[in-house]
């Protein structure tokens, strides 16, 4: 009697549950739960907390927990989207993403084609060397590049400029000697005013960011394009050659179609990373000069940690997260991330 | 994904042949050159053809030299004399003044050893915590069907591939909580934070590795009377050893390389190596101690670079694992 009651209760509750408990493998769930919970507690929970914070008037860390904050709805977002500082940051973030992406693709494609070219000997060793940046800590690479762009007279890039200047001057001297009948001096526009403070100018700092970002990310592009190029049958190139296709023609009709999809996929991923770039602007000059180059995450970080505008910073971060969500959607739609999961 | 396994299997043979290859390459190069010259002399190969190859290779080498300029610069800078880098003409220091003073300074006089200890504490927490949740998680995702499995996988893959920079966005929320609970200047909490961030990538990596262990091994063990735990202990874990080793490396790197979270949460006495490196690099706008900075940076990056050098094929497969190759 009691067992049949239990059975009936069980069957009844089974019916009420939204899913079939017989499919619920408790053992598997228990094994995966600790990792998922740990990850979510450091990721999903803070995001929810950020969304909440962005709708309050919290300023410094004390007010956030102390409870003396008021719910202000979407006021912070209204302030944010009417703040010119936000649009500066937003614009420079997308510009940074676009410029570095184009250069990454060009550099990646160029290197990959060079390192799969039949005329190059020792390709395997060269490929090992070319992906070195991938094997170094980001903080190492970025601080080293900061040194390269040092504004000091003896910074490497300023030294290169000095070398260039003296080369131009020497050349002018030679010309002067040769044309003894006129006095030739170096035209001013050919000489660079030394030393250049790379990181103090807006656009020179921006180009420094882009250079470093490209150096950080091109190995990923190279690896992906090389593996795509290696899948192109050599016969295809030979057939095109026999048909009289020139180099450009072969590039457009044989090489590009082969790498289009992988490059697209890699572009989405690397663009998402560029969008969230923080370390390069922060270490180079804290998004300076005068906050003109603050990429979105740097902007949010500074508002929170340095300027104690927690609610405002949360609104910035939530906006950034929304765009990252967009990249995720793109990666699922255009890349083959989903196939990887579904086939697993 | 099959490529991952193939490469993992190859690693042992790669490592054994590696030393031999490295030692003998000058001889092989010399033989190739001799053979080529022979071919040209006997007319099997035209000079024009040879010239094209030499030009192509030379061009490639030139490109590599330009690309790797920062690496070469940092090495020579670390060897230069005093602040010599900043006072001599030319980009590189004078080779006749090379010395190891900067390395001596880093190892015996700077805060390197204290920071190293802090880094090792953080890394220890990161590795042990993440391993203890990644291995069971990967096993469950690989071998068990349960509700939400696909959702978790999706979440892990998306976060790994697209949202890695989100940790800074969430950092500002966590910072408030940590400060209020007095956890901000705590190496163990920092290690836990890194462990949480390392879970998605490493779980996915180990899961794809375990997917390639044939189920028939487990079935055979079950027929022999093995229980659930025995199957895991006697079949799954031993066969996943190479995958677990890779995960170990990646979780180590997660703790070793990270900078901004450590910089935000820690006070100077608890600074890890990456934060000390930053402090050295930004010591002053015009008087950064370049030689000391370079030596510090190289000693910091060396373990990572060595790991990557030895496990290069892992890394390639690991970083393009999002279905790029199979």
TrEMBL record, chain A:
GO biological process terms on file: transmembrane transport
Subcellular localization(s) per the UniProt record: Cell membrane
Signal peptide: none
Main location group: membrane
Membrane topology according to the record: Multi-pass membrane protein
Keywords per UniProt: Cell membrane, Membrane, Transmembrane, Transmembrane helix, Transport
TM helices/strands, residue ranges: 24-53, 92-116, 128-148, 168-191, 203-229, 263-284, 310-332
GO CC list: plasma membrane
InterPro entries: MetI-like (IPR000515), MetI-like_sf (IPR035906), UgpAE/MalFG_permease (IPR050809)
Domain of life: Archaea
Pfam families: BPD_transp_1
Annotated ranges, domain ABC transmembrane type-1: 90-329
PANTHER family per the UniProt record, alphabetical: ARABINOOLIGOSACCHARIDES TRANSPORT SYSTEM PERMEASE PROTEIN ARAP (PTHR43227:SF7), BLL4140 PROTEIN (PTHR43227)
Entry's family note: Belongs to the binding-protein-dependent transport system permease family.
Protein name in the entry: Binding-protein-dependent transport system inner membrane protein
Taxonomic classification: Archaea, Methanobacteriati, Methanobacteriota, Stenosarchaea group, Halobacteria
UniProtKB/TrEMBL annotation, chain B:
Keyword Transmembrane helix: yes
Gene3D superfamilies named in the record: MetI-like (1.10.3720.10)
Protein name: Binding-protein-dependent transport system inner membrane protein
Sequence intervals crossing the membrane: 54-75, 115-141, 153-181, 187-206, 293-311
Cellular component aspect of the GO annotation: plasma membrane
Residues annotated as domain ABC transmembrane type-1: 116-311
A single GO BP: transmembrane transport
Compartment annotation: Cell membrane
Keyword terms: Cell membrane, Membrane, Sugar transport, Transmembrane, Transmembrane helix, Transport
UniProt record similarity statement: Belongs to the binding-protein-dependent transport system permease family. MalFG subfamily.
Entry membrane topology: Multi-pass membrane protein
Record InterPro entries: BP-dep_ABC_trans_perm, MetI-like, MetI-like_sf
């Amino acid at each position: 009697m009691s067992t049949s009651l239990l059975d009936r209760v069980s069957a009844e509750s089974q019916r009420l549950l939204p899913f079939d408990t017989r499919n619920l493998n408790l053992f598997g769930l228990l094994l995966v739960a600790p990792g998922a919970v740990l990850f979510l507690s450091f990721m999903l929970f803070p995001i929810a907390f950020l969304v909440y914070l962005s709708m309050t008037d919290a300023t410094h860390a004390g007010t956030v927990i102390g409870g003396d904050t008021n719910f202000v709805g979407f006021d912070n977002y209204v302030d944010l989207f009417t703040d010119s500082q936000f649009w500066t940051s937003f614009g420079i973030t997308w510009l940074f993403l676009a410029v570095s992406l184009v250069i990454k693709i060009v550099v990646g494609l160029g290197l990959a084609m060079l390192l799969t070219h039949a005329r190059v000997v020792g390709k395997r060793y060269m490929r090992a060397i070319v992906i070195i940046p991938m094997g170094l800590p980001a903080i190492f690479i970025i601080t080293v590049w900061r040194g390269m762009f040092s504004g000091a007279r003896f910074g490497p890039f300023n030294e290169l400029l000095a070398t260039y200047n003296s080369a131009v001057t020497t050349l002018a001297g030679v010309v002067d000697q040769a044309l003894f009948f006129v006095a030739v001096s170096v035209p001013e526009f050919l000489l660079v005013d030394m030393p250049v403070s790379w990181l103090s100018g807006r656009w020179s700092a921006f180009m420094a960011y882009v250079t470093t970002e490209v150096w950080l990310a091109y190995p990923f592009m190279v690896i992906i394009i090389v593996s795509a190029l290696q899948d192109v049958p050599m016969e295809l190139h030979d057939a095109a050659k026999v048909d009289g296709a020139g180099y450009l023609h072969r590039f457009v009709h044989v090489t590009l179609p082969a790498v289009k999809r992988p490059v697209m996929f890699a572009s989405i991923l690397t663009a998402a990373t560029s969008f969230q770039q923080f370390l390069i602007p922060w270490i180079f000059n804290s998004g300076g000069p005068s906050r003109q180059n603050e990429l979105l995450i740097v902007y949010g970080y500074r508002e929170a940690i340095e300027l104690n505008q927690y609610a405002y910073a949360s609104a910035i971060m939530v906006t950034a997260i929304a765009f990252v969500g967009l990249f995720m959607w793109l990666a699922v739609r255009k890349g083959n991330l989903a196939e990887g999961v579904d086939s697993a | 994904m099959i490529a991952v396994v193939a490469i993992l299997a190859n690693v042992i043979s790669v490592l054994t042949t590696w030393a031999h290859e490295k030692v003998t390459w000058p001889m092989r190069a010399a033989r190739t050159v001799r053979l080529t010259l022979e071919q040209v002399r006997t007319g099997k190969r035209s000079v024009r053809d040879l010239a094209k190859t030499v030009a192509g290779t030379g061009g490639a080498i030139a490109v590599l030299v330009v690309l790797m300029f920062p690496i070469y610069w940092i090495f020579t800078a670390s060897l230069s004399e005093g602040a010599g880098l900043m006072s001599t003409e030319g980009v590189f220091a004078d080779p006749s003044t090379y010395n190891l003073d900067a390395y001596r300074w880093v190892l015996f006089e700077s805060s390197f050893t204290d920071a190293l200890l802090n880094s090792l504490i953080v890394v220890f927490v990161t590795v042990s915590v993440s391993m203890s949740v990644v291995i069971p998680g990967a096993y469950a995702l690989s071998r068990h069907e349960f509700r939400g499995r696909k959702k978790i996988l999706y979440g892990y893959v998306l976060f790994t591939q697209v949202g890695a920079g989100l940790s800074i966005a969430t950092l500002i929320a966590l910072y408030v909580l940590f400060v209020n609970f007095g956890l901000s200047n705590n190496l163990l909490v920092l290690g836990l934070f890194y462990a949480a961030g390392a879970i998605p990538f490493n779980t996915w990596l180990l899961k794809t590795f375990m997917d390639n262990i044939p189920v028939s091994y487990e079935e055979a063990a079950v027929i022999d009377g093995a229980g659930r735990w025995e199957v895991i202990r006697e079949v799954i874990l031993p066969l996943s050893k190479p995958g677990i080793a890779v995960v170990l490396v990646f979780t180590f790197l997660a703790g070793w390389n990270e900078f901004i979270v450590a910089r935000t949460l820690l006070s100077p006495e608890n600074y890890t190596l990456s934060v000390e490196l930053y402090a050295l690099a930004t010591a002053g706008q015009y008087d950064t101690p370049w030689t000391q900075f370079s030596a510090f940076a190289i000693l910091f990056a060396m373990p990572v670079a060595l790991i990557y050098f030895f496990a290069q094929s892992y890394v390639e497969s690991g970083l393009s694992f999002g279905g790029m190759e199979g």
